[in-house]
Specification:
The protein is of the alpha+beta class and 153 residues long. It has 5 helices and 4 strands; from the N terminus they run αααβαββαβ. The protein has a 4-stranded antiparallel beta sheet with strand order 2-3-1-4, covered by helices on one side. A hairpin with a 6-residue loop joins strand 2 and strand 3. The longest helix is centred in the N-terminal third of the chain and has 13 residues. It is elongated.
Length: 153
């Protein structure tokens, strides 16, 4: 992927604050607002920018338990179809294919431990899943976007 210096600067600014107005980015980068708009459209069309979201504080909307679930699959399991089934469970916010003992790693939010137990029951109903292992997060210390390397980094 060939990204120029302006692309990298724009990405650096947006990764710090996705709500930064285009004209503010243009001022920082010393280019026109139209140039910023074109670069962002291009970065979106090639998949570098996947969208923008508001980050919600789970505990303030009733999700007090965050957990990571390692999922072990049958040897012949179809990971893609299992992931599609898991995607139907709204408490699962991330699903990663992993190496090592487990095949999948899920990040989930539930109201409480009882709700987590209910979610586990639903996960175990998915064909191809043989076992799970849970780690409950006690507190998130930080979360961030991947940093953007600009020239000189």
């Amino acid at each position: 992927m060939n990204l120029d210096k302006l692309d990298l600067k724009i990405l650096s600014i947006l990764s710090e604050n996705a709500k930064t107005p285009f004209l503010e980015i243009a001022r920082i980068c010393n280019v026109s607002g139209a140039a910023i708009h074109q670069h962002i459209q291009h970065l979106t069309s090639i998949g570098v920018i996947k969208g923008s979201v508001f980050l919600l504080e789970p505990s303030l909307i009733g999700y007090n338990t965050c957990a990571f679930i390692s999922v072990n699959l049958q040897p012949d399991a179809d990971i893609a179809s299992i992931a599609e089934e898991l995607k139907k469970l709204p408490e699962i916010v991330e699903c990663h294919i992993t190496s090592g003992k487990s095949s999948l790693l899920l990040k989930v939010y539930t109201a409480d431990n009882a709700s987590l137990l209910e979610l586990l029951s639903k996960i175990h109903l998915v064909s191809g899943i043989i076992s799970t292992n849970i780690t409950i997060s006690l507190k998130e210390e930080f979360a961030r976007q991947i940093g953007v390397k600009t020239s000189g980094n």
